[in-house]
Amino acid sequence: SYVLTQPPSLSVAPGKTARITCGGNNIGSKSVYWYQQKPGQAPVLVVYGISGRPSGIPERFSGSKSYNTATLTISRVEAGDEADYYCQVWDGEVVFGGGTKLTVL
Amino acid sequence: QVQLVQSGPEVKKPGASVKVSCKTSGYTFTGHYMHWVRQAPGQGLEWMGWINPYSGGTKYAQKFQGRVSMTRDTSISTAYMELSGLTSDDMAVYYCGRDEGSTSWGVDVWGQGTKVTVSS
């Protein structure tokens, strides 16, 4: 089965840039979705496709990908960005990464 | 606005079944597939399957084949997920989520979640 690998945690100072990676075999050929989940809340879609953002999601959130890695970039990180982030693709089934806990220092 | 409102928390005994509902509003129910995703305490997201509300067709994750059933009632724009043979490993928050419609199978709107507790 297809596996998506994310770092368990990432710490970033306010105002800096956070880059959360998602590794998967030939992920560059797939559509990647990124979700933000705050404690006790449902996930929220923040980035989809190449770098699409649903309405209401700040431009600070963007996505990119190469052959084996997709990256969610959060520019000018704010305290309110502290959350778990999950990547997701379709590979015959929906597959989620294990999640990355973003801590804002 | 698009809303997915799920049924309330459930407490079930081992071996029992649970049925969770997801009532939708603000969009054409039959125009978007509906996913079901669960999250065990302190764990990540786990996809269970989807249903096509227009046809009733389903696709289940291999892990849940034979134990899960997803149905819908188009007259009330509501989707259902029933999981049988519950064990303590099924204790989780269960989410419904609307497929975003691009055939890439992502979720653009989520329900609030339904907590399922399994306890004797």
Report on the architecture of this protein.
The complex is a heterodimer of chains A (105) and B (120). Chain A is mainly β. Chain A is 0% helix and 45% strand. In chain A, a hairpin with a 6-residue loop joins strand 3 and strand 4. Chain B has 120 residues and is mainly beta. Chain B has no helices and eleven strands. In chain B, strands 2, 4, 5, 6, 9, 10 and 11 form a seven-stranded mixed β-sheet that branches. A four-stranded antiparallel β-sheet of chain B has the order 1-3-8-7, with no helix packed on it. The mean pLDDT of chain B is 97.
Key attributes of the depicted protein:
heterodimer, A: 105 residues, mainly beta, six-stranded mixed sheet, three-stranded antiparallel sheet, 0% helix, globular, B: 120 residues, seven-stranded mixed sheet, four-stranded antiparallel sheet, 11 strands
Helix-strand string of chain A: EEEEEEEEE
The total count of strands of chain A amounts to 9
Mean pLDDT of chain A: 96
Instruction: Characterize the main sheet of chain B.
Output: 7 strands, mixed
